[in-house]
Amino acid sequence: MKRYTTVAELLEKMIDAHEKPQKEIAVLAGFSSTNFLSMIKHGEAKVPLAAVPRVAKVLGLDPQHLARKVVEEYHPELWAALKGSMAYHITDNEAVLIACLREATWNSDPHFDGRTLFDIARVIRKPKSR
Fold it and tell me: C or N terminus of the chain, fewer CB within 10 Å?
């Protein structure tokens, strides 16, 4: 079963893998304190909705995806009201992957078992830089 990644877990992964230090990420995201970013990263504070686009840009995340995760996790009642009326957004890079998949499978609708999905994820996963 797929494990749910919280906003804090996602941001922790992205911050830790980023080439810039956390202090610089905080400044670029518009936070006056590195401590606030650290609190967000550890689930002790929430990403302000107004900061979602900046945080996404700095960390190389899709802003719509991050906004969805933030609303879904921090405001579940709002998410429940909105989710049925919102089309799922895919990024340009995701569209390229879908086009590649369609070409590779002659536009069929292939079934992927768990092992195949694991292998695909392993190939496209960003390496963690240290």
Answer: N
